[in-house]
Amino acid sequence: MGRLEGQSATASAASTGMPLPTPKSDTARPGCTHVNVADYERRAKVVLPKGEFDYFAGGANDMVTLRENRAAYRRLRLRPRVLRDVSSVDTTRTVLGERMAHPIGISPTAEHRAAHDDGELATARAAAGTCSMMVVSSSATTALEDVATAGGPNMQRWFQLSLSSRKNRTVLAGLVRRAIAAGYTALVVTVDRPVLGRREADLRNCYELAPRLAEGRVVSATGARIGRRPDGTMDLGQASDARPEAGKSLNWDDVHWLRTICGDMKIVVKSVMTREAAEEALAHGVDAVWVSNHGGRQLDTVPATIEILPEVVQAVRGRCEIFVDGGIRRGTDVLKALALGASAVFIGRPVIWGLAHSGEHGVTDVINLLNEELVQAMRLMGCKKLGDIERSMVAHQSSYHAKL
Ligand SMILES: Cc1cc2nc3c(=O)[nH]c(=O)nc-3n(C[C@H](O)[C@H](O)[C@H](O)COP(=O)(O)O)c2cc1C
Ligand SMILES: CC(C)CC(=O)C(=O)O
Question: Which residues are identified as catalytic?
Answer without folding.
Answer: 294
